[in-house]
Structures are given as C-alpha cells and as structure tokens.
Batch of 3 targets.
Target 1
Amino acid sequence: MLIYGRRPVLEALRGGAVERVLVARGVKAQVLTELRRAAERARVPLDEVPRIDLDRALKTTAHQGVAAEVPEPRSATLDEAFALAAKREERLLLVLLDHLTDPHNVGAIIRSAEVLGAHGVVTEARRSAPISAAVVKTAAGATSHLPLIQVPNLPQVIEELKQRNVWVYGTDADGTHLPEQVDWDRDAALVIGSEGEGLRRLVRERCDDTVRIPVRGRVGSLNASVAAGILVYSVVRARGSEPAGPES
C-alpha cells in the first residue's frame, strides 16, 4: 500500500510503519536530506524514481514528490485487544465506530486511540470507511501498532462485549453523563457515531449508557475524531494515569 505527501511519510517513518520510501528525482535538496535522515533512523531504504512513476502509481500529481510503501493493515480480533490490555496491566478501552464513512475521520480516530492508550478500534465492514491508503496516511503509523477489528455486525459485537463484562458507552450530544461522572475503573468501550446521524437506533439501544462532551460555543457539536480524542483522554486520565509513552 502506498501513502504520499512529505508530512504523512515523515510521520509514518517516525511511527515505524514504512517499508520503503520513494522520492521523485528533482525534489528540493532540503526535502531529500530530511527524508534521507528520517529513513536512515528508521532503517528503511530510500529510492529516487522518475516523478512520472509516482504519478502513475498514485494516480495523482499532488504527492509532493514523496511516497512510501506501508504494510496492508491486518484485521485483528477482540481477543488481541483484550491481550494488549492485559499485557499493559490496564483496564480495557475500545473505540467502536458506528457508520463513520470519512477515511480522514477514521484515520484520525485510530491515531488518537493509539497515541492516547486505547487497546483497539472496531469498525463495521459495510458501514464504515475501509482501512484504505487514505486511512493509513491520516493515522500516521498508528495502524501498525493498534488492533483494528473489522466486524460484520456492530450491535452483535456490543452484546458480546457486554457478556465479557465490558461497559459500553454511546456518545451523544444529549448523553446522560459527562465523562467525569462515569466510573471508568472497569473495562469499557466508547461508541462514536457519524457526525450527521449520530448513533443508529440498534446501536444506541444496546449501549449501557451515554456520555456527552460539554460545549459552550455556538456551533454545538464537535468533529467525530476530535470528540473521540477528548473522550479517550478523559477515560485514561480518570483511571489515574497519563497516556503511556512509546513501548520499547
């Protein structure tokens, strides 16, 4: 899978998710030097290629002369997320996405979830954006470090999680509780709905409760990825710890 753009490629290199860097011949010397140094630190090969090769491979000319090969994301299982939480000796925290079709939103949520300390992101195969190059690019390397669990039916997965003693909280502008009013000292999952429609009825009905983020501005709502980041951080902080740094 190919991602492109100077900043996304540099961030992916820092995240350890790149197999090879491709740079168009003729890019600015400063840009080439920066990429070479980043690739050397990541122990990743860098090849200079004709710009037309990047145009054809990426089907766009808006790549800034920079691309990178990254692994195809692998679909994980719920058990892998549980195992990651157990390895860290932490309460489970999952982020479930209900009908989020914008790949940039999905990628940004995956990135925030990984950086802030969640243990997995769950998407529904037919009703969420696929884990495409656009998602991987926006996630900036996080797709290689966090279990990404694709399921056929999100309501059924919520029921399974509840059977495994996971408390499931839907996010809603009119939610019952503020994040600080919830006892997060237990395995939990946050369900993020689409910006236009929110949570589907079948999903909302299966949640144990709902939470909301207080807003004071006139717009009245937050971007889904911003809301997800705020809520994940709220949970991690309420559990008495700051988000963990990079694992060795």
Target 2
Amino acid sequence: MQDDYTFTGNEGGIISESDARQFIANYHMGPCITWNQGVHGHFFGKKLIEELLKQRGAKGIRIYYGSKPSASSGVLEPQLILVAANANGDDMLSQGKIADISRPCPKFCPKGVGLII
C-alpha cells in the first residue's frame, strides 16, 4: 500500500498515438507481467477523464489493454490506455488526446475501503 500519497484528481497524462499503438502491440505480443501477477488496478484522476470527455463529440471512453517497459527494470508491465469515443463508437484520434500514465495498484492502492480482497 502507498500510505503517503494523496490522490489529487490530476493523475494520468496524455500520450502520443504512436506510444499508445506500441503499448497495445506490446500487450498482444507478450510476454509481460500478467494482470493477475501483480497489477490489480489503475487510478486516473478526474482532470484527465474530464479532458478526454470534453472533446467535441465525445460520448464516452474506450479503454485498451497495453504493456510498456517499466522505467526501473525494463520488464513489460500492464497499462490501460484511454481514448474518447464518439457516437459511432469510433476512437477520437484526430484531437490527439490519448491517456496513460496512471497510478497502478500496487503501489497506489486503496488505503481503506477497496475492491481488492
């Protein structure tokens, strides 16, 4: 558990379309740390989600599975990539807002009530 972190709503960040495509390709190629071998969830702040949803024509958010190298070990770790989707269900790539850079659990897990058993 990460006891000394206070979520601010600003967690997460915009990544490039090429990074998003690479992370998704990494996930499909494997191998990586599987979802049930460590990462339980990801936290994205309110600010980032609102930024995706405020794009003209956005009706929701699509979430893709991806993997990217850990900054410390280089081992591929699970990631979630968020992109706004329009009324047709199409990813809104032309506005260049694709999100990643979440706070994964563990390390940033619920301090009290949470879904983790």
Target 3
Amino acid sequence: MTYPEKLRSNVWFLLPIFLGIIGGIIAFFVLRQDDPRKARNCLYLGIAFMIFGIILNVLIAASIPGLDSGFNVNI
C-alpha cells in the first residue's frame, strides 16, 4: 500500500537531537508513512548523535586521572 508523500515540518529533527536514538526511533515511526525520507534522516541523525555521545563519554572517562579499579577499599 503506497501513501502519498506529505511534507512534514523540520521541527521533527529536534526530537533526535535532544533524545538521541530514542527520539530518532519515535520520529521514524511517526513520519514513516507521510514523509519516508525525513523519517529515515531522523533515524540516521539519532544514530549519529548516539555514536557521538559514546565517543565523547569515552574521551571524558579516559581523561580522568584518578579513576582506577581499586576505589581504595580494604576488606
């Protein structure tokens, strides 16, 4: 079943920007029948922000000098 393509607002791109992959999935399922190209782009944007967030967390965690596995606990 094909649906006629209906243009949706660009405000939908804010959902994956603020919520990452979850926002991308939500936007994808809402937009997939009306505007499939924008739905796919929202999903890709959510994936890109998820990967960027993971890389940023790894870089920040690696820069903390006092982080070790012992936590100075004696049993």
